[in-house]
Amino acid sequence: MLSTDSSKRISFDRLICDxxxxxxxxxxxRIKAVKVQKGSVFQNRxxxxxxxxxxGKPFGSKVLSNKGGFVFVLAPTPELWTLVLSHxxxxxxxxxxxxxxxxxxxxxGCVVLESGTGSGSLTTSLARAVAPSGHVHTFDFHEQRAxxxxxxxxxxxxxxxxxxxxxxxxxxxxxxxxxxxxxSVFLDLPQPWLALPSVRRMLKQDGVLCSFSPCIEQVQxxxxxxxxxxxxxxxxxxxxxxxxxxEERMMRTEGDQDGDLAGPFSRKRKQRxxxxxxxxxxxTTTTTTVMAxxxxxxxxxxxxxxxARLACS
Amino acid sequence: xxxxxxxIHRVVSKTLSLFFPxxxxxxxxxxxxxxxxxxxxxxxxxxxxxxxxxxxxLAPAPPPPNPRATWEGCSVLLDINDGDxxxxxxxSAAATLKIGNKKCSLAPLLGCxxxxxxxxxxxxDGPYLARxxxxxxxxxxxxxxxxxxxxxxxxxxxxxxxxxxxxxQNLSSDDIEAMRREGATGDExxxxxxxxxxxxxxxxxxxxxxxxxKKQKKYAPKVLLRRPSARSICExxxxxxxARIGFLRVDTLSLLLSMANVGPYSDILxxxxxxxxxxxxxxxxxxxxxxxxxxxxxxxxxxxDIVRMxxxxxxxxxxxxHMPFSDLFKSHENSVFPGAELNANAPSMLSESPKYxxxxxxxxxxxxxxxxxxxxxSVDNMEASSSPAKNGTEHFVLNPCSSDASACRxxxxxxxxxxxxxKGRQVPAETVALWKRNGFSSLIIAAPESDVGTxxxxxxxxxxxxxxxxxxxQYLQPLATCMHKLQSSKMAISxxxxxxxxxxxxxxxxxTHPLMQMSSFGGYTLSGIxxxxxxTVANIVTPK
Lengths: 313, 544
Description:
The structure holds two protein chains of two kinds. Chain A is α/β, with parallel strands linked by helices.
């Protein structure tokens, strides 16, 4: 999934091989991760797709089913992985993930602690950010969840960057071996304030903490505890608004032509259409304009992101 | 947005820094130890304890990824009075900065940990920066909160009896001057002001806090030493001179990096017409691996002065390559490549690659010793010498490549050899050939003044199949048009226009709510994935 593995890197020459992980893209809300296996098939409402047809094609190709339907087979990225991974928990999405990584100032070589691992959505992006020389140590108290996450990271070629450990961070804190070794810490815990004394010991001087909490009460309690030992305590909420773009036809009468209905920023393609003889008022113009509007529904809340820096002693 | 009146300040230091070119090379122990000596003997008289603190802060060598302490020649972000003023400075023993009406040496900052807090104090030799414990100030703020904790609703004090007749303060400015002469610290003056205010006790806890903060800013200005990173640099520009970075907010910048899958060992194609903020942020994520090819249309690279604010290592800088699009495109046209043919390997392209100039040395360009910093005062900046103009122009033009910088150079040291901006290492021809052979691994376009639709159509063929791309714009319509064009050209899928929304909260006991003022706009992005569109498949009728 990462460019660190040069043999898996996308390029014009890089063709889909047996055993590759591909992202099958049907449309923006129908995406699946598939492991290519010679004798295997992928099925959807457009028909049956043979994996063997994909092998030898470049990533990003359009592939056909037995009925002539098509999908695209894409190379995996952490962003696509977030859309296809199996949800064992509530996960973090693009907007939060991006913001967290920037705000935690994660760069190649950093050591990052995370709890809980959950479904590994953020972990995958963290791994990309610390690669090639850094490391993500991620902890979850749920044994099966940790094992599944570990399998995922293995399959995605990230096991050298991520270590998954079963541990109750709220109860036990982070392991002492990371004392003063973490560049940043990320918490997604029901009672994050319980883990904060441990976080304070783990962070390097001026290191950054982020705590993700869906409820404001959790934020309130965490911020109370953060008052000792941390500075620059800030809480944010970040959301994404998506837009849909359409080319719409607009009819107007001749008199209107100079009007500014579509605004100054429309790209007009004017076509005069022969007018109905019964309508005596002259000509009508049809203009097509590309227009954008926000999608009707959106995620309204994910969680509050509280950041703090370890104060300099 | 508050259009304010930006003024340009410069930290002028002398010859010393010439010996320490601005680069992370200065991190090696030899130079770090020199930094210690410098900070151990600051030109200003200071208490031994301050020097000790600095020495101990420097003792462990800074770890590689994010340096934890400053060094001679390093770029720092100074946050004066909680963001009232933000100043980029380059540290040296001779660097000075005017804070309020006091000129302070920046030498005490050398070797200190990022995150350290300083206060302006006056000594026998004039004002100087003294290290102050952030914990102390935290607790002082904290005790205030502790005392009010839980009783916020029960606080019965209000302002019905406060009359604004300018007689509440019994301390005159002469009294304060006298205290200063006797060596009172800023905090002591603030305490005296509170003690002599006849109305302080009648104020609510909040207004007491506000009063204290206001006086602290005036009599004991704080300077917080921060590490310049993509985050802090973007936030600083966005807050003070947003037009220079095309109104790109930090959450939008973060999105660009994710959407373009920026990670080590990638070859990222960038069009950065917003001052170099994208270039800097991408280079930071590459960490000295892969390549960032910053391409430009026309004869000269776009200004990317912001890259100099980062403390990039020489490896990281060597991965930033500026290349005219005409060169990329010319060779691309001649090549058998993208779109047309897949399996061709074209070693012959090696010979086509002409000399490529780049600006990898941008950060060492300004000959280091004078560092033009972007700095401006906000409206409520205390004792600002310049009167902030509320009607000021939004477009703050600061061109360090222009006469400003050279004038400054001249003033500080005339004998300094000047390195032209665009002379740097050449990109190895094999690298260029490799880009063409493999395609770039992603593309970021931030070109608010160009037709992004045309740019993206030209650049997409240079991307590897399945490579993600993202376009930033501060207006929606160009992206909508561009998206529509891409949809019909069948060059890309997963097209999406997004607008991030960022809200900050005040979290205090019984007083939690969103901040009263927020940025309501941080830019739009159009993201997508390049597909392999070989002619045969394109004609298939879809079952939809």
